[in-house]
Write a structure and sequence with these properties.
The chain is an alpha+beta fold. The protein has 9 helices and 17 strands. It binds fe (ii) ion.
């Protein structure tokens, strides 16, 4: 039996609050292959904020910037820099989802209300999650506009860089808070504990972290929650928490079905990836056995491979996409494996620490 108390359908979009949405949207279009599908701003009658809707296959991002100094969006940007504000869900009924969430212990971020334009009416509410992040609950009914009320259509979404959909979104929370937030996702959204990692799985000398992956029943929405673990020096999660000034979304993983083509395209357009030492590929055949891809090709791009009982996965992580070492992206291709690349943690964290050291944060 499925347990979906809020009747979540999917991640509708991820909204970022940023200092300059025009430039951020340009970066995501040029570097990651998104298309500008809709827009709201001064030209469409929106006097308070400008929002650029970016689409690629099943992923929708929104870059929003405030247009005046008295906007509450400024406070978020001062605290956190550009970052994820809203992981918005489409639900069957926003009012019922909101009521159920509040009854199950969620804190309100926005009461249910109507949004209307010539394409119809949408109901929207929101609840708070970790840090200053929220989950909007949106029911669209018969609404047939390009995005949400108040937005004008721009170009159609294309195939872009082959990023098919969001595989998972990771939240970083404070030391000692991981279980609390995992419990929150279980209690409020009905998610289950999918997998967990402790500091024995994922520690190098410095960069220890612990992680619990929470998932809905269909495994289509997966939210790992990380907290720092005690290490000899500063954990990568602590570095994030320092520069983000508290908890927030750490990375978004995009699913692809051809990681070599996708990563080639992203590298050509200027996306910076984390590189592991070449020795990683010497040990690879003995660690993961036969794979469909040529080891040369994946070594050249720095793609990582991990195998478990169900199959294997290929993955690669970008460097932070902003000046604060906070938000980054993962590209992942799954060939049977539903894991998160546990076998890559050590090599990956050593590469990460090299970067952390360059920033003077180790
Ligand atoms: Fe990930």
């Amino acid at each position: 039996m499925t347990n979906n108390p809020l009747h979540l359908k999917r991640i509708h979009h991820v909204e970022f609050w940023v200092g300059n949405a025009k430039q951020a949207s340009y970066y995501y279009r040029k570097a990651f292959g998104f298309s500008l599908t809709a827009y709201s701003g001064l030209e469409t009658g929106n006097r308070s904020a400008a929002s650029y809707v970016l689409g690629q296959n099943k992923t929708t991002f929104v870059m929003t910037t405030p247009l005046s100094s008295d906007s509450h969006i400024n406070d978020f940007i001062v605290q956190h820099g550009d970052g994820v504000r809203d992981i918005a869900f489409e639900v069957a009924d926003a009012d019922l989802a909101y009521e159920a969430a509040i009854e199950r212990g969620a804190e309100s971020a926005m009461e249910p209300h109507d949004l209307t334009d010539e394409h119809g009416t949408v109901r929207r509410a929101a609840i708070k999650t970790y840090g200053d992040t929220i989950h909007s609950l949106i029911s669209k009914g018969e609404y047939d506009g390009p995005f949400l009320p108040g937005y004008e259509a721009r170009e159609p979404a294309g195939g872009g860089a082959g990023l098919l959909r969001i595989d998972h979104i990771v939240g970083n929370v404070e030391l000692g808070k991981m279980n609390e937030w995992a419990e929150w996702y279980s209690k409020v959204l009905g998610f289950k504990r999918y997998i967990s990692f402790d500091d024995k799985d994922i520690s190098t000398e410095y960069s220890a972290l612990m992680s619990i992956v929470m998932s809905d029943d269909s495994f289509s929405i997966k939210f790992p929650i990380n907290e720092p673990a005690e290490g000899r020096k500063k954990s990568q999660i602590e570095e994030y928490l320092d520069f983000n000034n508290g908890p927030g979304a750490q990375h978004v993983a995009f699913l692809t079905d051809d990681i070599i083509a996708t990563v080639k395209r992203l590298v050509a357009s200027g996306v910076d990836f984390l590189m592991v030492p070449e020795s990683y590929y010497e040990e690879l055949p003995s660690r993961v056995g036969e794979i469909d891809e040529a080891v040369d090709a994946i070594a050249e791009l720095g793609v990582l491979v991990d195998r478990d009982d169900e199959g294997y996965l290929l993955q690669l992580f970008t460097k932070p996409v902003e000046d604060r070492p906070t938000l980054f992206y993962e590209i992942i291709q799954r060939k049977g494996s539903r894991g998160f690349g546990k076998g890559n943690f050590k090599a990956l964290f050593e590469a990460l620490e090299l970067e952390q050291d360059r920033r003077g944060n180790l």
